[in-house]
Amino acid sequence: MIEGRALDTIELSDRPTESQAHEIVFGYLGHKKFSLKRFPTGLCHYVYEVMPLGQEPFVLRMGYSATRGHIAGSVYWTEQLSPLGIPIPKILHKDLLGLYPYTILNRIPGQDLGYVYSSLKPKQKQLLAREISHWQVEVGKLPLGNGYGFGFSPSDPRLKSSWPEVIDSQIKRARNWILSNNICNVSHVDRVETEAHLLKSYLEAVQARPFLHDTTTKNVLISKQRLSGIVDIDDVCFGDSLFVIGLTNMALLANGQDTDYITYWCEAQQVSGIQVKALNFYTALFCVTFMGEIGQRFNRETVDVDMNQAYHYEKILDILLKS
What we know:
The protein has helices at 18-29, 68-81, 113-116, 122-139, 163-181, 187-198, 200-204, 242-254, 260-269, 274-293, 307-322, and strands spanning 34-38, 46-52, 58-62, 91-95, 102-106, 111-112, 149-151, 210-211, 220-223, 226-230, 236-238. The chain is of the alpha+beta class. The strands form three sheets. It has a five-stranded antiparallel sheet, with helices on both faces. Helix 5 (163-181) runs antiparallel to helix 6, helix 6 (187-198) packs antiparallel against helix 10 and helix 8 (242-254) packs across helix 10. The radius of gyration is 20 Å and the shape is globular. The chain starts with 17 loop residues before the first helix and ends with a helix. The relative contact order is 0.14.
């Protein structure tokens, strides 16, 4: 989620169009009739639901020159994670070398957790939290990374030398984004940076253990009030798996939803002691990241700025840094 959001500077002329998506699907299906509809939530890829006449729907994920590594990473991690039994899509076809790299995947039924969260009962949230925690534990049994942060593979050259370096990179980017859009006060980032210094010993001790960093209120699919699949895994993160809990916590707070799911997830993962402080810090880190995202275009044609959203994030940060 985090790495892919720095791609908003790519010229629109370099990006795939719907007609090019039609060409890819036509080549895959032959002369069979089909329709397609783009998912509106993608920030990095151009993702379409394809509905062939008389057949099960499937998904087309298209990239472009700047995201070729993401598509290749999704292929690599699908190969690594599928044997673990994680409910991720199967790759039906792929092309990593063309002008617009893509994968064609089976369509897992369900909606993102964020869309159905308010309809879930406490027991259903608890079961989901236990399932996600279980799959994170299984991913954590894979080999450690050669470095820290987001990797298309364990030896990705993008990996950093320490977990604090990853955190520092996140802080710097939030600062740059806030400065570029001039909507929120950059002093909020200074406050989070101070908290990072207080957790220095904890952060320095983190191992480069893999986890799925995007199993948040997005990419976790729910069907019939249960987990049906996990999607959009282009890379994994090597470091502290509390990081993704912090992101999910912030996503729920941002939408004004309860955080019971986070409580259940922490129980399943047996979060205690200094880990509680670390989780609170990660949530605050993502709070200033969300502030910086306000006004950013990413791969959208236009974007609206909601000042009430900015004020809401500031209130959340005040509460987090007082706890």
